[in-house]
């Protein structure tokens, strides 16, 4: 059963959001992916948010570009933690998306990643789940140790 929902406003967001899925795959976390547009499919958004807990989800990663209302609207429909990923846009390079996701009113927080930061969103979701899953915590610790070990101490000309 999926523990993480990865949602996005449109198909064009998938190249960015796929990075969250890759991290979750690498760390063995079950997830589902859906296109849920805040503007074009509001009934789908409402249903997804209202049923997320009963379907077993524990964290939602929501990516959106432009007006980027999806993460905030999802936060208004569920008590689950929502992690927002601003998707880069052509017009304003994703700054519009970032500001839209950051500016949530009190009571409906969204943990906001950097523009295009879906991989970190996946890692944040894993960190949240690892609080109550010792095996997942061990996998995350090992993943981080491998990352640290991959960084050389000195630069090379190669």
What does this structure look like?
There is one protein chain. This protein has 158 residues and is an alpha/beta fold. 43% of the residues lie in helices and 15% in strands. It is built from 6 helices and 5 strands. Strands 2-1-3-4-5 form a 5-stranded parallel beta sheet, sandwiched between helices. Strand 4, helix 4 and strand 5 form a beta-alpha-beta unit. Helix 1 runs parallel beside helix 5, helix 2 crosses helix 3 and helix 5 packs across helix 6. It starts with a strand and ends in a 9-residue tail after the last helix.
Defining traits:
158 residues; alpha/beta; 6 helices; 5 strands; globular
Write the layout of secondary structure elements.
Layout: E1 4-8, H1 14-26, E2 31-35, H2 42-51, E3 59-64, H3 70-77, E4 82-86, H4 95-102, E5 111-112, H5 118-130, H6 134-149
Parallel strand pairs: 1-2, 1-3, 3-4, 4-5
